[in-house]
Specification:
The two termini of chain A are 37 Å apart. Chain A has one domain: Alkaline Phosphatase, subunit A (3-Layer(aba) Sandwich). In chain A, α9 runs antiparallel to α11. In chain A, strands 1, 5, 6, 7, 8, 9, 10, 11 and 12 form a nine-stranded mixed sheet that branches. Chain A has a three-stranded antiparallel sheet with strand order 2-4-3. Chain A has 13 helices and twelve strands. Chain B has a two-stranded antiparallel ribbon. Helix content of chain B is 56%, strand content 3%. With 458 residues, chain B is mostly helical. Classes of the chains: A alpha/beta (407), B mainly alpha (458). The interface between A and B is large, with 67 and 66 residues. Chain B: InterPro entries: DUF1800. Chain B: Keywords: Coiled coil. Chain B: It holds the Pfam family DUF1800.
C-alpha cells in the first residue's frame, strides 16, 4: 500500500523543474493544432454514485435505501434509460442528456481498496498509478504524464485552477497554476529586487516567475470585451444559488479555454455525506451541475469539441447508515459531459446489489477501472496510443475492454 | 549543532520581535512549557459552555419564526442581531488566538497548539458553533500539549466540536435499547475511522475495516448538543464486547469507561508512536525528515508512554534541531503573524481591531494565500508540503500582502534597513540585505524583507 506520505515525499523530491521525463517518448498528436478541450474535475469526499445515478431498476435497491434516501421517478429523479435515474439536483443537466452531451460510467473505481481513506484515495486517483505493494510510486499526476508524452506543450496548455494544490497536474510537463481573484501589486523596481532575492531558492524562484507571467496574461485578457457567450454565462452565474466560488473557477476556466489553454483541472468539494445525505448531496450536485452549465454556456461553439470528466476517490456504502447518510465505500460513478462525448449512455457492467454481489458485503462492486474511461477519453480526443496510456499515463491499466466514450 | 536563538524563533516559535526576547536555551524552551500558560490569561477565550445561552435563544427564535408564533418581525430582528453576535465572537476569538503569537516569549507553545489543533482538526458546521473552534482549541488541545498524548486524544475525541464535526452525535448502536423499533437509526463510521487513520495509528497502522466498525460500535452513545455540551447516552451504546485490534473492550452493558479504555490503548500503541513521531518531524523539520530523528522521537514516545514534553525534548536535543537549511515554509497564518510580530504590532492592537478590519488585515489575505481561517477542506487538516503553499497563486498573495502591509495605519513606520535585522537576524542573506536598502520606498523595502525566502522558510 502506498501511503499519502510516500506521495508527498515523492512529489517534494521531484521539485518543480520543467525538464521532460526521460522515461517517456513523445508521440505525435493525431490532430494539430490541438483543438479539443478537456476539463477534469476532482470530486473530493467520495461521491455516492448510487444516489446520483440511481439504479432504480435493480430490485435490491429498495431494501438498501429508500428510508431517507429515496430514489427513482417517485422521488423526483429523471429516468435515464429505464434502469438508471438521475438525482433531482442534476435536473439542470437533463437537456444535455437529451442532446447527447452527458453520460456516466457506473460501478467503477480506481484499484484502491479496503482502507477507504479519502486522502490516500484522492492521491491515488490523481496519481493514476502506484496501487499495488512494491509498485513504483507515481510521483506526478496522470494528466501531467499525459502532457509529458506529447510535444509542443507550453505552460499555458494546461491550467490547475484554485487555491488547493492539484496532484493531478503536477509533474515534469510545464503547466500553469492560478486561482481567480489573485492579485500581485508590486512596483517594477521591487519586482526586479524580488527576482534577485529569489534567485538562489528554486521553490520561490519558479513560483514567482510563473506568478509574474500569469499576472501579465490575466491583465491582457481583462481588456477584451465580453461577447454574447460570456455575457450569457455571467447571467447564469447571477441566477445560480449556493455560493460563488465554484462558478468563479468555472468562469476562469472558460476564459482560459477560449485562449490557448486546452486543459483545465480543478476540484469541487463537499461529497462526504455521512449525515443527512439528502441535503448535503443536493448542494454538492447543484454546484457540479452549475459548473458544467457555466462551461457549456461560456464556451459557446467550443463546447462541441469539449469533454468534461468528473471523478471521485471512491463510492459509498450501498446501505444507508444510521444517520441518514452513507459511509466510505468502493465502487461509484463517474460523469462525462461535453459536445465531444458519446452521450445519453450509462456505461458499465452492472454487478447487482444482492448480498452476494457486493464488495466486502457492504460496497458496490467495481466491475471496471475508472481510469479506463479517462484513458479512453484521452485516446479519443488526442489519439494517444494505447501502449503509452497503459504504461506511462496509467501504469498497470489494461485498456482491452475500455469502451469508446468519445464520438 | 549548537542551540541558535534565531533559529529557535523561526523553526520552533512565532518569529522574531523588536520587543521580545528569543529563548535562551533548549532547557528554557522546555521549562517554559511546564510553567503556567500566561498568554491564555492575557488573551482569554471563554469555554464552550458560554455559547449555551445564545444557542438556546437561537433555537427558540428559529422555531418561533418558522412556526409563525408571536411577534415575528421583532423576533426576526433579534435573530439577526444574535447571528451577528456569533460571527463577531468568532472573529474576536480569532484575534485573541493570534495576538498570543504577537506577545509571547514562549513561542514553542503557540506552535505546538497550532500543530495539535491541526492534528485534531475540527471545522464548525453550524452557525452557533462559529466561535467554538477557538473554544475547542483552548479547552481540549491547549491544556494538554505538554502532557500525555492519551489525555490529548481523549479530550479532543470527546469534545462536542469533534463529535459534531465527524458526525458522531447521532450514531447509535444497531442493537442498543434506543434503536429498538427505529430501523432508521444506527452507526456512523466517520469519527471511528478518522480516530484510527488520522488521530492515532495513522493510515499505515495495523487496523482494518472491522476495527473501524467495532470502534464505531464502542463510540455509539457519545453525543451532546450545543446548549448542554458533551453527554454519554448509555441507551444508545452497542452491547459489547467489541474487538479492536484483536482486544476485547466493554461487556454487555456499554459505559463511557470502555471508550476511555480503547482510546488509552490506541494512544500508546506503537503505530501511534510512529505516526506522531513522523508528523512532528515533518512539521518542524522537513517534508522528508531524517529517519534518525523520527526514530528518536518514536523511541522517546514509547519509552515514556507518550509523554509529550519528553518527546519534544528528543526533538530539540537532536543534533539536527538547530541545523540549516530551513526546509519548511511558514503556512499563511503563521506567515502573517510572524510579519506583524516583526513589525512590532502589539497583541492588544490586534484584538482592538474591528472584525472587518481584522479580516482585511489577516484572514482575507490568509485565504488568498490558501488558508481559509479554521476551515481546512477535511479532517486531515492543512497540508504540510512546501510545494502546496509556495504555488504561483499562493506566493502572489503573500507578496501582495507583504508589499501593502506597511500602509496599515495600526503599524508604526519601520526603516527597511533596521527591519531586515529585526525580522531576519542572522538569517538575512546578502541579497535580501541589499534589496532592503535598494528599494524605492519604505513599503517596498519592508515588503521585500517579508517576501524573502528567509522570512518565509523555517
Amino acid at each position: 500500500m502506498v501511503s499519502r506520505r510516500d506521495f508527498l515525499r515523492a512529489s517534494a523530491a521531484l521539485g518543480c523543474s520543467a525538464a521532460a521525463s526521460p522515461l517517456l517518448t513523445p508521440v505525435t498528436l493525431a490532430a494539430a493544432p490541438w483543438d479539443a478541450r478537456l476539463v477534469v474535475i476532482i470530486l473530493r469526499g467520495g461521491m455516492d454514485g448510487l444516489d446520483v445515478v440511481q439504479p432504480y431498476g435493480d430490485r435490491d435497491l429498495a431494501a438498501l435505501r429508500g428510508r431517507e434516501l429515496k430514489f427513482g421517478e417517485s422521488a423526483g429523479a429523471a429516468d435515464l434509460d429505464g434502469f438508471f435515474a438521475l438525482h433531482p439536483a442534476m435536473s439542470p443537466l437533463i437537456p444535455l442528456w437529451a442532446a447527447g452531451e452527458l453520460s456516466f460510467a457506473h460501478a467503477v473505481s480506481t484499484p484502491y481498496r479496503d482502507k477507504r481513506s479519502h486522502f490516500d484515495g484522492q492521491d491515488l486517483l490523481e496519481a493514476g498509478g502506484g496501487f499495488g505493494p512494491g509498485e513504483r510510486v507515481a510521483r506526478d499526476g496522470w494528466l501531467n504524464r499525459m502532457l509529458q508524452s506529447v510535444p509542443g506543450v507550453e505552460a499555458r496548455t494546461a491550467y490547475a485552477i484554485g487555491r488547493e494544490d492539484l496532484l493531478l497536474l503536477k509533474g515534469a510537463a510545464p503547466v500553469s497554476n492560478w486561482a481567480p481573484g489573485t492579485e500581485m501589486r508590486i512596483s517594477p523596481q521591487a519586482e526586479l529586487l524580488l527576482e534577485m532575492t529569489y534567485h538562489e531558492d528554486p521553490l520561490f524562484r519558479d513560483a514567482v516567475t510563473e506568478a509574474l507571467e500569469l499576472t501579465r496574461t490575466m491583465a491582457a485578457t481583462v481588456e477584451a470585451a465580453p461577447d454574447d457567450d460570456m455575457m450569457a454565462m455571467q447571467e447564469m452565474m447571477k441566477q445560480a444559488k449556493g455560493g460563488r466560488g465554484h462558478l468563479e473557477v468555472a468562469e476562469f476556466a472558460v476564459e482560459r479555454l477560449r485562449e490557448e489553454t486546452r486543459i483545465a483541472a480543478f476540484s469541487i468539494n463537499g461529497w462526504d455525506t455521512h449525515n443527512n445525505q439528502r441535503y448535503v448531496l443536493s448542494r454538492a450536485l447543484g454546484r457540479l451541475a452549475d459548473t458544467i452549465l457555466a462551461l457549456k454556456i461560456g464556451l459557446g461553439p467550443l463546447w462541441a469539441g469539449t469533454t468534461v470528466l468528473a471523478l471521485t476517490e471512491f463510492g459509498r456504502t450501498v446501505r444507508q447508515n444510521g444517520t441518514a447518510g452513507t459511509d466510505h465505500g468502493t465502487g461509484g460513478a463517474m460523469l462525462l459531459a461535453g459536445g465531444a462525448i458519446r452521450g445519453g449512455i450509462v456505461h458499465g457492467k452492472w454487478p447487482g446489489l444482492s448480498e452476494g454481489d457486493l464488495y466486502a458485503g457492504r460496497d458496490l462492486l467495481p466491475t471496471e477501472d475508472v481510469r479506463a474511461y479517462a484513458a479512453s477519453a484521452i485516446r479519443g480526443l488526442y489519439g494517444l496510443p494505447v501502449s503509452v496510456l497503459e504504461s506511462a499515463v496509467f501504469p498497470g491499466l489494461d485498456m482491452a475492454q475500455a469502451p469508446g466514450v468519445i464520438l | 549543532m549548537a542551540f541558535d536563538p534565531t533559529l529557535a524563533e523561526f523553526r520552533f516559535g512565532t518569529g522574531r520581535s523588536p520587543r521580545l526576547e528569543a529563548p535562551a536555551s533548549v532547557d528554557a524552551m522546555l521549562s517554559a512549557l511546564t510553567r503556567a500558560d500566561s498568554m491564555v490569561r492575557v488573551f482569554p477565550v471563554p469555554p464552550f459552555s458560554s455559547i449555551a445561552e445564545d444557542a438556546r435563544r437561537h433555537q427558540s427564535l428559529q422555531r418561533a419564526i418558522r412556526r409563525n408564533e408571536g411577534d415575528v418581525e421583532s423576533q426576526k430582528e433579534e435573530f439577526k442581531k444574535l447571528r451577528s453576535r456569533f460571527s463577531a465572537r468568532k472573529w474576536r476569538y480569532a484575534a485573541r488566538q493570534l495576538a498570543r503569537g504577537l506577545e509571547t516569549e514562549d513561542g514553542f507553545r503557540e506552535r505546538l497548539v497550532a500543530f495539535w489543533a491541526d492534528h485534531f482538526t475540527v471545522v464548525s458546521k453550524s452557525f452557533v458553533t462559529r466561535p467554538a473552534v477557538s473554544m475547542f482549541i483552548d479547552e481540549a488541545i491547549r491544556p494538554h500539549v505538554a502532557g500525555r498524548f492519551a489525555d490529548l486524544l481523549r479530550a479532543a475525541t470527546l469534545h462536542p466540536m469533534m463529535l459534531f464535526y465527524l458526525d458522531q452525535t447521532r450514531s447509535v448502536g444497531p442493537n442498543s435499547p434506543f434503536a429498538k423499533g427505529k430501523p432508521n437509526r444506527g452507526l456512523n463510521e466517520n469519527l471511528a475511522r478518522e480516530v484510527l487513520e488520522l488521530h492515532s495509528l495513522g493510515v499505515d497502522g495495523a487496523y482494518g475495516q472491522d476495527d473501524v466498525r467495532q470502534l464505531a460500535e464502542l463510540f455509539a452513545g457519545l453525543g451532546g448538543n450545543v446548549p448542554d455540551g458533551f453527554k454519554y447516552f448509555e441507551r444508545r451504546g452497542e452491547p459489547g464486547p467489541e474487538y479492536v485490534l484483536g482486544r476485547a473492550f466493554g461487556r454487555r452493558k456499554p459505559k463511557i469507561e470502555d471508550v476511555h479504555e480503547v482510546l488509552d490503548t490506541l494512544a500508546t500503541h506503537p503505530d501511534t508512536a510512529a505516526h506522531v513521531a513522523r508528523k512532528l518531524a515533518v512539521h518542524f523539520f522537513s517534508d522528508t525528515p531524517d529517519p534518525d530523528l523520527v526514530a528518536a522521537l518514536e523511541t522517546r514516545f514509547l519509552e515514556t508512554g507518550g509523554d509529550l514534553t519528553s518527546v519534544y525534548a528528543a526533538l530539540l536535543e537532536h543534533p539536527t534541531a538547530f541545523s540549516r537549511p530551513m526546509r519548511k515554509v511558514r503556512r499563511p497564518v503563521e506567515f502573517i503573524v510572524a510579519g506583524l510580530r516583526a513589525l512590532g504590532m502589539r497583541g492588544k492592537t490586534l484584538t482592538n481591531l474591528t472584525p472587518k478590519r481584522f479580516r482585511q488585515l489577516v484572514t482575507t489575505p490568509a485565504q488568498l494565500m490558501g488558508q481559509t481561517w479554521q476551515t481546512p477542506t477535511g479532517p486531515d487538516g492543512w497540508p504540510e508540503d512546501t510545494g502546496h503553499w509556495i504555488t504561483p497563486q499562493g506566493l502572489a498573495a503573500r507578496i501582495d500582502w507583504a508589499m501593502g502591509v506597511q500602509g496599515a495605519s495600526e503599524l508604526e513606520l519601520s526603516d527597511p534597513r533596521d527591519f531586515v535585522d529585526v525580522a531576519l537576524g542572522s538569517l538575512a542573506s546578502e541579497r535580501t540585505l541589499f534589496a532592503a536598502g535598494a528599494a524605492e520606498t519604505r513599503g517596498d523595502g519592508i515588503g521585500l524583507v517579508l517576501s524573502s525566502p528567509e522570512f518565509q522558510r523555517r
